[in-house]
Amino acid sequence: MVSGSDVTGEMETPMETTDTAGPDTAGSAAASPAAAADAPATSAQTAAPAVFDVSGLTVFYGDFRAVADITLPVLENEITAFIGPSGCGKSTVLRCFNRMNDLIQSARVQGSVKYHGVDLYDEDVDPVEVRRRIGMVFQKPNPFPKSIYDNIAFGPKIAGFKGNMDDLVHESLQRAALWDEVKDKLKESAFALSGGQQQRLCIARAIATSPDVVLMDEPASALDPIATLRIEELMFELKADYTIIIVTHNMQQAARVSDRTAFFNVDIDETGQRTGRLVEFNETGTIFTNPSEKATEDYITGRFG
Amino acid sequence: MSSTSGDLSHHDEIRHHFDVLMAGLLQGMVRMGALVTENTRRAGEAMTENRLDLVKTVRKADAEVNSMYATLERQTFETLARQQPVASDLRFLVATTRILYELERSGDLAVNCVNVLERENGFPGSAALRSLVGKLVTEASALFARAIDALADMDEDAGPRLDAEDDAVDDTVSAFYTAIGRESTEIGLESAIELSRIGRYLERIADHGVNIGEHVTYIVTGEFPADLHPVLDDEDG
Predict the structure, then answer these.
(1) Is A288's CB within 8 Å of B81's CB?
(2) How far apart are alpha carbons B177 and A204 in whole angstroms?
(3) Which of A232, A238, A248, A253 to mutate to test the interface with B (most CBs of B within 10 A)?
(4) Tens digits of per-residue pLDDT, B78-96?
(5) Which residues on neighbouring strands pair with residue A15, listed in sequence order?
(6) Least enclosed by CB within 10 Å: which of A143, A272, A282, B48?
């Protein structure tokens, strides 16, 4: 990471909250970068500083424009949910936050993704360091074919962790609400765990390297309802220490767990070209009780999607 | 929420956040209920002690009740929208929207009492009438307070029990009306009508208490109040 990565001051959005800032301000947030800073200010809630500030983000895969002109802030110690139908670009945007799109050869990014004020796509920025600070959990639990203990220890070891590894493993599993279930079998294979436990192990692994942000791409879609609720409860606890962005097809999950929700949709132009766009971004309570855009209403009420 | 005991700590930690939200709503309603009980007694004191200075205090306290109503109603709707409640959770949240209404209306009725006092520039009746108002305030506010206790305890028998207890309040209201009739010549028709309004307001506060009890019974048992009472009471007259 470049030396300026700890700069947070300039990214703080001065969100004077007023009762008059209604849903309309949110609707314009998607279209206008200038409005983005004001968009989430719809309640008297204390505004957190922005961890990410996305502005005019457009992602191409070759000639295909996957998403266009995304502008939104991601606030510290909040859970931000990205929802929308398949192909709306929500996962594409998520992958920009830790430069996972770099791993796709044809991917090209325009606009800016600022992380604590530093442009993540600046040529001085080391993507490996980015991924240490911005961890990721995937749809399918993907533990390493190793012991539970080594799943946690692997990342820190690679990163040159010098502290007490037992303590780190303990703490990471504790935070992921898994310790009590695995403390007597740390040397057993991670594959012996249930799907929900494996996913919590992956979350423990993601936080073992002390990230600042955890990205979650459909983290519960492969789990049963109770394991899903456990993951959500865990996310709630984790947001005290981390900023979380979750992509989910399950809009009820976004409703339950997130502080803010971004609804993405697919635009189809006259040539049949499909492009993902941010339709509405607001506090989750507003999105699910009184969204300002008809497309949002239609999607969350199950009228299309 | 447990459907049998109403014990908010019944769930394990899987939906801890949701349980905290629900407990917060219940606490908010209980606090609103305590404010309304207190304000009803304060309105009673204003009437029986002829304390016109308390009129403003009663209105101010009701403003807090109204503000809590607005906040809790919004939280309830948001919880309904975001948490996909079913079974006892759904009954609790739907009943909460109704209980909030009962609480808010009861608060208004206490204000209505002191509004009469202000219009009449003091309590317009004999010591006997004043003493009957005092009795009515005591009984209505006590029933209301028991309804709030039942709410806090998720007492499944609250509905039928409070309904039975309300008969005593109705008897006192009748006695009050009779006494107003006896004195109507001395106090004048207009004041007699105003006094009878006070009787009606206090009777309604007790009725709202009974309704709260019925909502509690519904939350715990799933039995609709309408099934207990095929003919519901008239709305505020």
Answers:
(1) yes
(2) 71
(3) A232
(4) 999 999 999 999 999 999 9
(5) none
(6) A272
